[in-house]
UniProtKB/TrEMBL annotation, chain A:
GO terms for molecular function: ATP binding; ATP hydrolysis activity; transmembrane transporter activity. Its EC number is 3.6.3.41. This is Heme ABC exporter ATP-binding protein CcmA. Residues 3-200 form the ABC transporter domain. InterPro entries: AAA+_ATPase (IPR003593), ABC_transporter-like_ATP-bd (IPR003439), ABC_transptr_haem_export_CcmA (IPR005895), P-loop_NTPase (IPR027417). Coiled coil: none annotated. PROSITE patterns: ABC_TRANSPORTER_2. GO terms for biological process: cytochrome complex assembly. It comes from the Bacteria.
TrEMBL record, chain B:
It is found in: Cell inner membrane. This is Heme exporter protein B. It is a multi-pass membrane protein. Its main location: membrane. It comes from Aquibium carbonis. The gene is ccmB. One of its GO terms (cellular component) is plasma membrane. GO terms for biological process: cytochrome c biosynthetic process; cytochrome complex assembly. Required for the export of heme to the periplasm for the biogenesis of c-type cytochromes. Keywords: Cell inner membrane, Cell membrane, Cytochrome c-type biogenesis, Membrane, Transmembrane, Transmembrane helix, Transport. Belongs to the CcmB/CycW/HelB family. NCBIfam families: ccmB. The keyword Thylakoid does not apply. The chain crosses the membrane at residues 12-35, 47-68, 89-112, 124-152, 159-182, 194-216.
């Protein structure tokens, strides 16, 4: 499976933020997107996810048929918000996403253990701290399977130990033949195969 | 899809969902009418079905603007849209409408018979009004979804949603009320307006989610 971005142009409010961004990712490869604030990291990720139309160029997923017809269907997107409901318990949140997204992968108790929060599954999400919520959002990537992870500042709010833990999860995903596109300021201790510097 | 339905119903019923607010508003509207109109029992009985319908209509518009906005604020909408690529987004919207109806509008239908007593309506009239509400109010949720999707990115979209939606729900209101009247007053028929209302509910059950899904897809930023 290959993720190909060809001459992407990004635009926000009529203003071009970046143009001519191309990259190719094959199974097991990670792309680290770095750059200053406002250089278009988030815009690039949202365009790849299909949530924003590209001003030019195209993103395609090759060889994903029949399970993963296009990038949007094959991707997990972890944005700035966690997409979790404070009124539901941790387990209810994860179970709802697992059943809705399909392709169940890691059972919920194990996923919680992998992010180091195996004892709070019954708590309403609203009681958790910022970093704990982020770790639950990361657990969502595990409970249903997608080959491509699109991560926008995934470690925002995480402590050092959780960052290390998350780096191990990403490494395991890459080893599993997945692909990762992450926008972040920190290298996250992972052996990135590619790096894309925005605004350079 | 069932997971989405259960999640939304739970959210609607739990704290901050505002399902009970609608019932309270409905109660307030209907309870105030006899004071305003005066103690003319015949008049109350005559306007009863219309008041029930208008009250239920306004109460069901209350929580409508949060239908997609809550999901947008916490980022869930992005994921719903992305997963919508695999299985139609319109279907997800349809399920969300059903969940919204179950959590916030169904309690209104349940409360309607009691409020009908306030309006001195006959038992058969109460039954007819409740029946029309049961099958007519889903249309409001489906039309409302399209309005809510258009206004999803506006921070104070509540009133705008109501204004967008009201003209479209007026036909439902007309046939719903005339069916309720038809059940009690001769020679007005009950069945033709009731069936027309059902047809409208079915029509909007298809059109509303499709329109809302299209609006949501283009609202992403």
């Amino acid at each position: 499976m290959r993720l190909v971005a060809n001459e992407l142009d990004g635009e926000r409010g009529g203003e071009t933020i970046f143009s001519g961004v191309s990259f190719v990712l094959t199974a097991g490869e990670g792309l680290l997107v770095t750059g200053a604030n406002g250089s278009g990291k988030s815009t690039l990720l949202r365009i790849v996810a299909g949530l924003l139309p590209a001003a030019g160029g195209a993103v395609t997923l090759e060889g994903g048929e029949p399970d993963w017809p296009d990038v949007m269907a094959a991707s997990h997107y972890l944005g700035h918000q966690n997409a979790l409901k404070p009124a539901l318990s941790v387990t209810e949140n994860l179970a709802a996403w697992r059943d809705y997204l399909g392709e169940p992968h890691v059972p919920i108790p194990e996923a919680l253990e992998m992010v180091g929060l195996d004892e709070i599954g019954h708590l309403p999400l609203g009681y958790l701290s910022t970093g704990q919520k982020r770790r639950i959002a990361i657990a969502r990537l595990l409970v249903s399977y997608r080959p491509v992870w699109l991560l926008d500042e995934p470690t925002a709010g995480l402590d050092r130990a959780s960052e290390t833990q998350f780096a191990a999860l990403m490494a395991a995903h890459l080893e599993d033949g997945g692909m990762i596109l992450a926008a972040t300021h920190l290298p996250l201790g992972l052996d990135w195969t590619h790096e894309l510097r925005m605004g350079a | 899809m069932l997971a989405l339905y259960i999640r939304d119903v739970r959210l609607g019923i739990r704290s901050g969902g505002g399902a009970l607010v609608g019932v309270l508003f409905f109660l307030a509207v209907v309870a105030v009418i006899p004071f305003g109109v005066g103690p003319d029992l015949n008049l109350l009985a005559r306007i009863g079905p219309a008041i029930l319908w208008i009250g239920a209509l306004l109460a069901s518009l209350l929580g409508l603007d949060r239908l997609f906005q809550a999901d947008r604020d916490d980022g869930s909408l992005d994921i719903l849209i992305m997963a919508g690529e695999r299985r139609m987004l319109a279907l997800a919207v349809f399920v969300k409408c059903l969940a919204h109806w179950t959590a916030s509008v169904l309690p209104l239908v349940v409360a309607a018979p009691m409020l009908g007593l306030f309006m001195n309506m006959e038992p058969i009239g109460i039954g007819a009004a409740t029946l029309t509400l049961l099958f007519g109010t889903p249309a409001i949720a489906f039309i409302g979804a399209a309005g809510a999707a258009v206004a999803v990115s506006l921070p104070r979209g509540g009133l705008l949603v109501s204004v967008l939606v009201l003209p479209l729900v007026i036909p439902v209101l007309i046939f719903g009320v005339s069916a309720s009247y038809g059940a009690v007053t001769e020679p007005d028929p009950f069945l033709p307006p009731f069936l027309l209302m059902l047809a409208m509910t079915l029509f909007f059950a298809v059109l509303g989610p499709v329109a809302a899904a299209a609006a949501l897809r283009w609202s992403a930023d």
